[in-house]
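Box 4.2: Ligand-aware structure prediction
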Amino acid sequence: MFNMANKKDKRELTDVLLSAQKLYKPSKEFQKNTNFPDYEKTLKTAAKNPLKFWEEAAEKLSWFQKWDQVLDDKNKPFYKWFVNGKCNLAYNALDRHIENNPKMHNKKAIIWEDETGRVRKFTYLELYKEVNKLVNAMKNSGVERGDRVAIYMPNIPEIVFAMLACAKIGAMHSVVYAGFSAKALADRIEDAQAKILFTADGSFRRGKIIDLKTIADDAVKQAKSVKKVIVVKNNNAKVNFNKKVDIWYNDFVKGFSDVAHCAEMDSEDPAFVLYTSGTTSKPKGVIHVHGGYAVNVLQTMEYVWDVKGDEIFWCTADPGWITGHSYIIYGPLLAGITTVMYEGMPDMPKPDRIWKVVEKHKVNVLYTAPTLIRAMMKYGAKWPQAHKMPTLRLLGSVGEPINPEAWKWYYKYVGKSKCPIMDTWWQTETGANMLTPLPSAPLKAGSACKPFPGIIADVVDKKGKSVPVGKGGYLIIRNQWPGMIRTIFNNPERYIKTYWSQVKGSYFAGDVAFKDKDGYFWIQGRTDDVLKVAGHRIGTAEVESSFVSHKAVVEAGVVGVPDPIKGEVIKAFIILTAKTKPSDELKMELKKHVRKEIGPVAVIKDIEFVEKLPKTRSGKIMRRVLKAKELGLPLGDTSSLV
Ligand code: PRX
């Protein structure tokens, strides 16, 4: 939150206020051709009756049986949407296109490219057949409705096959980002009690093959619930193969029919679990369902991403995060458009790879993260300037606040000052875009604009009272929406405590923000102990507990410090055992240790050995004090400090 007593915050607020004065409006021609040309009217219409807005959204999908109530809020906060409706997420993303529209058969569903330049394309019919074969093979291996299936794979077409096949069976997928370690994977498999695991021999990164199979093997040694490991041959890498549990993907599906039954699910049946970091060392298994999630994601495709049926959509996220779930896979497929997948680094072999992919595959919508934009800025504007990218018409940003400077660079050099930027604020828990402009909205560089139609958001103080314009406070959502988290897997108490106990009746997002005089939201970051490193969500408690698992460490306090490219990086304050001598070698060893425990996603920038950590009387580490010291800021209220 802004503290006007401190110089740095003063400067940031001034930056924001200056950029808040300038409005970037779409051209009249562009605006006229958007799905919802009158931005304010669109918001007003939805606000009059949000339930009607969502009911009309649900009517755009195919239902085996219609719902008899839009929202059941009797058992708060366990809300139910489209009560007694019967549907299936995969049916809506795939089968209905094939059954209802022969023209869709030959339309491209997936265009995939990897770092080495290999390209694979799948039409909707090809994708449908691949998914069906896998459905039959999985059922033959005993996967049933309600089971959990773990997926630890690179950004390749088979991850889409696996996710859709799970949904079609009614089994829940649990995708674990391939940048997590064996231990992190094992913990997630164990929590979900997944029966099978999908993985690959490897994944290309900066010309090297990342050996995913060995990591998966280590995880399976710890996670006893896994009975079968299905391995995609992605790189022809030499891998260890244990015939008792491992089977190559191609052998697994061989001989199975390409026609398969689709399970009729209840709207509220869970479609997937996705683990995300919170304030404790144990990640939360966020549950999303078949009905509301599909409705909400599709609605954002039409409103935010302005799809009309023929777009080529490229979201540069990884399928292991919610952005990948909703906007590489389900969103584009629910909308019946073409999704682009790229497996590799954005600057390989040269810093114009992203712009080349956009041109080569005629991308219309590019949805990426501020950290990638800042990394590209470092190479210079000449790289995007050398590419006209004539098909681009809309840009997107997600994952962390985008600084006005990066926003302007993205707008000018990538969008050629004609593609509006959808800065979308949302979370693993929200399922789909929540605060966002629509393409017809006037934009402000660095603001996520206003709530999506049908969403009521606010910025409040500790008591839940709205704070005045320009004043920082907690971001909350006052109403419910179909794509919302339903619970935390195996932990409904944590669901209630984390999201519904801070401000009565409202969803507590865990972010701080302020609203300006025009009602535009400006997100400042997290209020809790969650970090955003290169847009990846990591809990400080997770990192601390991995430090403490090293024999030389007694206690650890971890904070995020600002970084010009990654947004935030990790700094750790460590107390060593009495007999351990601090040294640079030990710092290296500890960094490696954390990388092994959590995965390459947890990059430790700096370690400082200390004698003591600031604590409250109850023994909680005051990370806020550590951070203030690190950044040279006033310590704030230290009355509870021992
Ligand atoms: O702090 C907010 C930040 O990312 C958090 C959610 O992280 P995750 O669940 O990993 O989902 C990321 C992608 C949906 C939020 O609580 N965040 C996300 N988008 C933005 C953002 N912060 C500012 N602006 C955004 N556009």
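In the box above, the bound molecule is adenosine-5'-monophosphate-propyl ester. The first strand starts at residue 69 and ends at 72.
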